[in-house]
Amino acid sequence: MITHFAKLELNTVSIEGMKQFYQDQMHFPVVSESQDEISFQPTEYFTLSFKESEESMRPAHIAFQVPFSEFEHVVDVLKERGITLLKWSDGRIVNDYSTGKAVYFRDGDGNLLEMIAHSYVKEDIVTPSGDLKILYLREIGFPIDDCIVFSEWMVQLFDFKLASVSDDFRFAIGGTAHAVIPSKKRKWIPIAMTALQPSMIVTFGVSSTVFIQEVKSKLDAKAVPHEWKEDGWLYFTLHGYHIVLTLTNFPVDVPARLNLPFSIM
Ligand SMILES: [Fe+2]
């Protein structure tokens, strides 16, 4: 099964700008840095990388899961760091809904970030990372022309489960990874940001080489070009999104122990 988002690689117009935001303001450890690339490690199992590019920027959307009991503290820390929290049209900052809370903000490239907490997520399973108490990367946004077709690919290839299903929006969920799949015509909340398709490489952590081989067989059957290494690595492109599956040691029972929907083993 797919257990989590292991890595996200985005383009940037400024390595230094990303460093000032993610290292200085978010306090994410830098794990590697070169002239044209920088990588941060917000949690033990997730790496966020930026590569300098001359392509025009199309901002991404990602959401970090934090403990429900720490949500107000996390919001205070963001404010103390001088991070501008985005407002809804009625002026409020926190999105308070039936099962959770969320706040939104942006990095220097305009990527739309979110801190989200859910009351049903068990808090004694994963040790929070850093002073922003991050449990894991919950969401990556995949704006697409046809979200029905793209989400069905994720269901067929990865055994993902769908939630919040409508014609122009859906979640595709595997483990702790929530692919947010809106139609490009739908705008990102809370600032009505146009949902462009970012240039990105998304690496999913996988629990076994057998699973990777199964996905490879499905790609073969559908004649999707791909690169594969037998020791646990698969790369392919789907509707312009670059996707990698890689074998990791993320504990396979964590999503179920966190009490995440669709994860009961
Ligand atoms: Fe989100």
Automatic annotation (TrEMBL):
Gene3D superfamilies: 2,3-Dihydroxybiphenyl 1,2-Dioxygenase, domain 1. Residues 4-118 form the VOC domain. SUPFAM superfamilies: Glyoxalase/Bleomycin resistance protein/Dihydroxybiphenyl dioxygenase. It comes from the Bacteria. Signal peptide: none annotated. InterPro entries: Glyas_Bleomycin-R_OHBP_Dase, VOC_core. This is Glyoxalase/bleomycin resistance/dioxygenase family protein. It comes from Paenibacillus alginolyticus. The lineage of its organism: Bacteria, Bacillati, Bacillota, Bacilli, Bacillales.
